[in-house]
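TICKET: design request
STATUS: open
ATTACHED STRUCTURE:
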């Protein structure tokens, strides 16, 4: 849990603060970049379509390619994080994202826009919940859920800050300046933070994961094969279970609907009479609510018995929010009063449950590979289809009614699948680290 000095005693500082919480702070900042860069697309949608004469479906196609690239790149990033650690993944991602954003500020055609946004998606795939979750899982046995929630809260904070910031930069200057400002954040903020301060594993600091000492002292002796199995499943073993595929489908449907809503919500509110700045601010507030969802669900995951029911609840909340938003013209501010917390809290839960579901059901042995595979199903299919399909529905009908009604149905379908999903079974429990006596969950 912490390093001992030469007298075999812990220093007072080490007793108070576990170094893993400093790692969580860095991961929080990384999540700010991930969330912010993902959600800012909604602020660029209408300005780009108006300047270049692209349809909503054509413009949204870039975001679909972004999510497709992120999803398809996840197995590579997962493998690299398992083989070489998450630090190298984050460094490469920061460089890729910064270069892509600089080039986006100079693009002048739809084809170039597609190529560069695809490139951006590859970079963002490396700093998402799968790799952040990998880092958290290596530092925490106890308090893993709340540490995961805090780290991933950054994604919601990024949406809260960067979406309105992008809207202001576009309004006051232009969209090219907005892309350049975001590039500076990746290259001047994230890159040095990771390079100089991130540590891959507790062993590099002479530590062990929080709570691991208790498990080591109280575990029964076992063979090497038993211990390896207890640490978790391999990717091949996980993919042979029904749980893996049901989770993949549930996340796929949820992200298909969520990606469509997040990509088009600013344009939807602009069409309803709000300014770009106001619509971007509301979108930012919605994303800020995801911070509460990420922390609360992360904390609750340490105590609930039926883990997958949390995922089902997160999807149902988003269905309620989108259903009420359909009556925005009638309900006005009251529709937003329901939409913002329901979609914000529900989506926050969906995001944090991706890595937590993997560690809960399959352990940490091949966490990066398994989380990457689940993400590939969810992002490359769900995330890629959602935004462009919603854009096509808008182009054919002139409004978002059918598109958002379809999102509601997808959320409910994903919720039903998650509700009936059960934990995989094997001869030896896959993750004893999550079955810790309640009296030890507050270890520091």
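STATUS: resolved
RESOLUTION: sequence designed for all positions
ATTACHED SEQUENCE:
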């Amino acid at each position: 849990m912490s390093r001992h000095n030469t007298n075999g005693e812990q220093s007072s500082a080490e007793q108070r603060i576990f170094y893993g919480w400093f790692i969580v702070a860095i991961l929080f900042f990384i999540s700010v970049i991930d969330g912010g860069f993902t959600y800012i697309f909604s602020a660029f949608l209408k300005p780009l379509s108006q300047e270049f004469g692209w349809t909503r479906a054509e413009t949204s196609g870039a975001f679909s390619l972004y999510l497709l690239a992120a999803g398809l790149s996840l197995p590579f990033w997962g493998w690299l994080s398992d083989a070489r650690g998450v630090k190298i993944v984050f460094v490469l991602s920061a460089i890729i994202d910064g270069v892509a954003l600089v080039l986006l500020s100079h693009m002048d055609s739809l084809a170039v826009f597609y190529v560069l946004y695809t490139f951006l998606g590859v970079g963002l795939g490396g700093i998402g919940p799968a790799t952040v979750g990998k880092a958290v899982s290596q530092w925490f046995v106890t308090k893993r859920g709340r540490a995961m929630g805090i780290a991933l809260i950054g994604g919601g904070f990024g949406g809260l800050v960067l979406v309105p910031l992008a809207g202001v930069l576009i309004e006051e200057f232009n969209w090219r300046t907005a892309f350049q400002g975001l590039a500076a954040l990746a290259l001047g903020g994230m890159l040095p933070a990771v390079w100089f301060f991130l540590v891959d594993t507790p062993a590099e600091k002479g530590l062990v994961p929080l709570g691991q000492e208790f498990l080591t002292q109280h575990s029964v002796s076992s063979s090497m094969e038993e211990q390896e199995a207890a640490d978790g499943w391999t990717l091949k073993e996980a993919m042979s279970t029904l749980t893996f595929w049901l989770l993949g489908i549930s996340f796929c449907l949820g992200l298909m609907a969520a990606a469509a809503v997040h990509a088009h919500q600013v344009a939807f509110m602009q069409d309803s009479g709000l300014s770009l700045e106001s619509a971007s601010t509301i979108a930012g507030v919605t994303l800020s609510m995801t911070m509460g969802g990420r922390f609360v669900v992360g904390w609750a995951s340490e105590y609930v018995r039926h883990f997958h029911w949390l995922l089902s609840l997160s999807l149902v909340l988003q269905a309620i929010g989108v259903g009420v938003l359909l009556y925005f013209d009638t309900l006005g501010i009251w529709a937003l009063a329901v939409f913002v917390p329901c979609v914000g809290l529900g989506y926050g839960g969906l995001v944090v449950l991706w890595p937590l579901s993997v560690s809960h059901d399959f352990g940490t042995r091949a966490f990066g590979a398994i989380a990457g595979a689940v993400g590939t199903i969810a992002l490359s299919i769900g995330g890629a289809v959602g935004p462009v399909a919603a854009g096509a529905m808008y182009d054919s009908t002139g409004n978002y009614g059918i598109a958002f009604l379809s999102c509601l149905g997808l959320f409910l379908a994903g919720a039903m699948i998650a509700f009936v999903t059960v934990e995989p079974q094997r001869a030896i429990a896959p993750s004893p680290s999550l079955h810790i006596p309640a009296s030890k969950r507050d270890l520091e």
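CLOSING REMARK: The domain at 18-199+230-435 is CATH 1.20.1250.20 (Growth Hormone; Chain: A;). The CA atoms of residues 91 and 339 lie 36 Å apart.
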